Every structure is written in C-alpha cells, then in structure tokens.
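Posting for a labmate who doesn't have an account.
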Amino acid sequence: MNSKRRDFLKIAGLSSLSLISNGGIANTSILLDETSTCSVNNAKQKFNMSGYAAPKLDKVRIGFIGVGNRGASAVYRINHIAGVEIKAISDIRRDVAERTSKQVSGEAPTIYADKEDEWKKLCDRPDIDLIYICTPWHLHTPMAVYAMKAGKHVAVEVPIATTVEECWQLVETSEATKKHCMMLENCCYDFFELMTLNMARQGVFGEILHGEGAYIHDLLDSNFDKNSYYDMWRLKENLRNGNLYPTHGLGPVSQIMDINRGDQFDYLTSMSSNDFSMAAKAKELANKDSFYQQFNGKSFRGNMNTTTIRTHKGRTIMLQHDVSSPRPYSRIHVVSGTKGFAQKWPEPGKIAFGHDWVSEAEMKKLEQQYTPEIVLKVGEMAKKVGGHGGMDFLMDWRLIDCLRNGLALDQDVYDAALWSVIAPLSEQSVKNRSNSVDIPDFTRGAWKNNAKVELTLKGGGNTLMK
C-alpha cells in the first residue's frame, strides 16, 4: 500500500475516534494496524485458480496430519471411498495415530509421530498426492503452504487461516504451485444448503439481496474439558474477540451470492457483547483445580458476535457467532431474494414466496424438483457413512471425485482465504468501536469474470464406495 495513503488513513482513523469521544458522528473505514498485513496486496495474480482443473489422478494417495478429533473421522470416511489409498498418518501423539491407522483397510499407513516436525516428512514423500490437515488452527496455514511447495494438493479444516497475512500466503502459494488448496467447509454440502444453491442458480429466489449465517453452538463445557482438545488449543483461541468461526454460515451464502465469481465482499462491521460466561467458568474451575489457574483472570471473547458484510453489488450478509451461551444449535442459513425466501434453522428447512411458508406438500414438490444431482447420486451413501448427517462424507466424496476426474473444485483457495479472513478483520472492527474494515480481494479483480460454482457432475461420478 502507498505509504502516504496509509498515513492518511491512520490520521483519519484517529480523527474519527476524537469525534466519537466528543459525541460527534464518525464514518470511516479502519485498515489494519502495523502489526498486521495490510488488506491491500498490489501484486498481480500469478495464475487464476478459480475454475482450475488439475490433471486427473487415477488413484488419490492421501496423507493425514492431525487425527485427534476431526481427523480420525475423516480417515474413517475416506476409507469408504473407492479410488483412494491412505499412505500415511501423522500426529504428535503416537498412540492416537496408531489407533486411527487401524481404521484403514489394506496396507497399513506409515506413522509419523512423537516430534513436532514429523509431519514434514509425510509431506515430502513423492508417493502422496493430497495432504488432509485437521490440526489446531494456528498450524493450518504453515502446514498447507509447506505441503503445496512440496507438490501436494491440500484440504484443510476450518478456518484455514487466522491472519490476513496467512490468507495471502495461501493464495500466492496455490497460484505459484498450481496446487489445489481447499478449505473443508462441510456445511456447503448439507442437503438443504445444496438445494437452495440449486434453486438460486435456477432463479427461483429472483435476485439475491441478503443472506444470514451463524455458528451458534454451546461449547462452554467442551472448550474447558481437558480431554477435548490437545493442549487446550480451542479454549486458547477464545482469548481473541471477534467472529472466530465464520465459515460454516458464510460458505453456503457466499456460493449462493456468487462471491468470488460475479460479486465480491467490500467491507464489514463487527460488534461483540461482553463475556458473561467464559471468564466466570475459568474462575469456577480454577477454584477446584489448579490446572485452570492459567485461564483465571483472562479476557475471553464476548458471548455473541454479530458481523455484517456488504458486497460490491450492494447485497448484505449478517453473521453471528456464539459458543458460550445455553441456547439451541443454529447456523441460521437465510437466503432472501426478490422472489423468494429460504430459512433452515430451526429445522426443518422452509421456503416462502410471500408472507407464509409453502405447504408441506409444496415443499416436497420443491425438493423433488431442485435436489441437485450430487445428492441424488451420493446422498443415501453419505447418510450411511455419516458425518453430521452425511454432509461430511458428501464433501469428501466430491473432493476425491473432482481430483480423479480432473474437475475444478467447488471451493478454491480464494474461497478459503476470503471466508477465513472475516475472523481477523472482525477482531479489528471490534477493537475499533465497530468501525468498518475493508475486505481484501484475493482474486485481484478476477471475480468479475470467474465462472460460477457448478452442481453438475460434468462427466464425473465414477467414484463410489469400496
């Protein structure tokens, strides 16, 4: 960024804070401070990964890194898909890696464990095509970048990055290596979300004008559970204050709005409530167990964060994040258009074309008409194998099928970076009295011409169960 422009914006930001403190009205866009990477990157796009189809792989040879929670489930699911070979598993805990390896049929995978950098040996192997990463968040980007530079495609759990700088690293590495970098946003493959995407593609909702998403999940007890997350990493992430987990609600809405493929995020604002639960929980536990003294007196994220996004085409998105309040699970999933409306939470999903929801009979007709081909082909199989009702398996199956058939992925590195960057940018906004923050364009303008995400199998679909 031009240094004069940066200095000007700093001054403008200070001026706005002065206005606020004096009761005036401020309307300014806050950019990142000196400790963060600027949201603007003036380098040219090296290669457009949107719509890129890598050479076909007759068999997808996979190495897994991190098999404590999500990773172990992924090994189980992948093991049910034809055309794959699980070559290696890495986890710092040998017993965890060995236990997970027993799920693999055929030749036992090589174990890489005990030392923090053992995963690099897995990435360096020439007989692996895809690295599947399910480690703590702060390791996602370093591992993905290393793996791509080692010539591997990568699939990484959410969020794929925790800073703006990491997002740019992923984009630039994927473009330079021409290796796929997919964030494993499973909620894009839930059945109702896929149906609403198909309906949007066929114009049923008219022009999409607004969307909503969320991750509202009472995880207070599990975040403080010594046995839930290695080294309490998930709890430590909650020392940041913002929307730390935006992608579950944001991914499906972004695809429906053709974000990165016809529209683009412009800026966001974010506000957090106070913390009414986590610090109190830490204090309560510390009084019973000295282990929790390390968290006693810490400042945790507020219970509820609400972030709003405006796109270049003037659409709006509302995101919410709350993992510490006693309330029912919800991802909201609202799609609002000029002709129709959809909402999933509370379940079941519903459709409206006016003041009232459509009848149960009409809903069944809509499901028959707009359930996409991928669900018709793989849906029942996905439900049997499982993973959040089948969407996890559907995500894995689609990834493998695209790699085996040389198809572009539904989610590319630009989606991974853009959906994940909302977390650090929301933190910036929260720190600055909810002033707006510019959202970087990781496609560097290519979004204006990139093709939409397609739901058809395009000659694929030859990947079935073992």
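Reply:
Got it, the structure tokens are right above this. The domain at 187-377+412-448 is CATH 3.30.360.10 (Dihydrodipicolinate Reductase; domain 2).
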